[in-house]
Amino acid sequence: MTPAALELLGVTRHFGSGATAVHALGPLDLSIAPGSFVSVLGPSGCGKSTLLRLVAGLEAPSEGRLRRGGEALDGPSRRVGVVFQEHVLFPWASVLDNVLLPADVYGLPRAAARSRALHLLERTGLADFAAQRPHSLSGGMKQRAAFCRALLPDPEILLLDEPFGALDALTREELSLDLSRLWGELGRTALLITHDIEEAILLGDRVVVMSARPGRIRADFAVDLPRPRGVDTASSPRYQEIKREIRALLFQRA
Amino acid sequence: MRQLSTPLIWLTLVLAWEGAVRALAVPAWLLPAPSAIGAMGWEWRAELLANTLVTLRETVLGFALALGLSVPLAVLVAFSRLAQRVVYPILLGLQSVPKVALAPLVTLWFGIGEWPKIVIVALVCFFPILVNIIAGFDAVPRAMLDLMHAMRASPAATFRRLRLPMALPYLFTGCKVAITFAVIGAVIAEFVAAQDGLGYLILMASAQSQTPLAFASILMLTLMSILLFRLIEMAERRLVDWKP
Ligand SMILES: Nc1ncnc2c1ncn2[C@@H]1O[C@H](COP(=O)(O)OP(=O)(O)O)[C@@H](O)[C@H]1O
Ligand SMILES: [Mg+2]
What we know:
Chain A is of the alpha/beta class. Chain A is built from eight helices and ten strands. The longest helix of chain A has 18 residues. The site of adenosine-5'-diphosphate has 13 residues of chain A, from strand 2 and helix 1. Chain B: This is NitT/TauT family transport system permease protein.
């Protein structure tokens, strides 16, 4: 049996100590199968970003263990791509150079990386903006560029921390459908952090619902909607049913 | 309209100056009229130019020396925790020393040639440049560092791709402050001990009540200062062509 792409065992995270200590997360167990898309849904401040930073290896857990592909996770990996809530594009570099950043950092062959970058920009409708600086792009375009950058080295695992959080509703939906399509083609493992129910269902094979801080897993819904998903998916009866179930859970008095 | 208003204001001021000096018959050794300054400046043009070049050379060399020393030091402070702990407090302490007060001592240590002037210019330029670059290296947002960290970028890659471009606008801010100080430093160094340079010329002219010549020298200094500032601004516009 192939090991889980990501595995969390009894993971907790505290910040600070003494009277000002904050228990941000856990204890939490989660296993993500290779090639699956898992959405983590939770209210703001419940420790979602903390969870992602732990999985990305940017922080260490206070207790518990994490595994990546069956091996102990003890730091960031070049087989993992991260898209943060803020696009974090470098304002001094062109869109193309921003997308090429991982190639530069990893020392990938230039010509191949360049053609892949241009292909990704093409696929996300940014081909005409390759030479522009990020400040001349709209919010949605910046986030697309950040996706391209994360996808450039073809990561096995994609981590997304509310990547559509700062966008307007229309752009959000358009971008999440684009992402769904792109992910379908790549067949990689993805973990999406979000506070948006529709987004979580539309993109995920599973929706993991978290409690308020300290974030724990309250429920784990399987999303058995056919792929590829499109604008029609949201109007299907099964989608509505899953959405009702999740809403019922979120708004029930505990 | 706006483009025209500044020269017009200056022209008006100069004319008012000329008119007031003539109307009140102020003696030239006390306050010369602009026309007298112009005439004297033209008469002494060869000397003015030669001494301007002397001061310009001291200023540029001192500034370059400060730049050459502060950039590597800032990199060291940015990279090494030890340097941060040891060097930074010392630098912050030294920053408060009024550098021009050291001018007589520097002359004592470095003799009477060009070097004491260059050293004093470098001293006054050093701190504004250094402090600004260090601030630039520190101005990198946490999210950008997280991005580099998530890619396991080496410290060298993080420096080259992130910290350096981030610090460049700060470097220019420091340079613009420093170049103005540099001209002041050069003149004060020349006041202390010199056989040439605009500071020397101002001192000599004042001592001999050749006030129009002193004013002409000050005008040259001002023009030099503006020119140097503009050159740095031009370089900045070429190298920092991005908006945050
Ligand atoms: N570096 C930190 N230091 C102290 N507290 C933190 C830190 N990071 C997060 N927290 C706290 O942990 C909790 C969860 O934060 P976060 O993971 O950002 O939540 P979410 O992303 O779900 O909005 C919050 O109460 C936050 O204040
Ligand atoms: Mg968050």
